[in-house]
Amino acid sequence: MKKLLTVFLLSTIPGLILAQNSDYNAELADSLGADDYGMKSYTLVMLKTGGGNIEDKAKVDSLFRGHLDNIGKLAAEGKVVVAGPLEKNENNYRGIFIFDVSDKEEVAKLLLTDPAIKEDLLAYDLYNWYGSAALPVYLETHSKIEKIRP
Fold first, then answer.
1. pLDDT-derived band of residue 71, with 50, 70 and 90 as boundaries?
2. HSE-CB of 111 using CA atoms within 13 angstroms
3. 91: in domain
């Protein structure tokens, strides 16, 4: 009776719509760390141009090759779930990472494994981000549609 009364009271609040998802999979939600909305906390990294200035093109190329390899390593470890470059912009943002890690200090340590960041060719800003808990499983599909790997 109490549950029925609660549902009735909540349903009378204007604009509030409560609906159960018939596709809900509790086991999957739990395995991904999802809350009741299918969401969770991540760390968003905005990569930007760093202050480093290396004249040696071969060294710069090597550092960015290491940058790409490091992204692959962090993705394989399940730490990075989204990564990609941005087009040129007025903010000097170069790309983004979304880490499946909510602790910013841990993310900062992981970022120092990137040789382009370590050499200050890239710098970063960190933000808490709340998004779909399903992000980590999209990488499995991406690997099946990626014809050429960088």
1. very high
2. 27
3. yes
The pLDDT tens digits of the residues spanning 4-28 come to 444 554 555 566 666 788 888 899 8
73 found inside a domain:
yes
User: Scanning the structure block, which residue is given the tokens 């990472």?
Assistant: 97
110, 42 contact by CB (below 8 A): no
Cα 32–chain centre separation: 14
Residue 125 domain boundaries: 39-141
Report the first-to-last Cα separation within the chain, whole angstroms. 60
* SS3 sequence of 121-137: CEEEEEEEEEEECCHHH
Residue entry with tokens 């202050």: 51
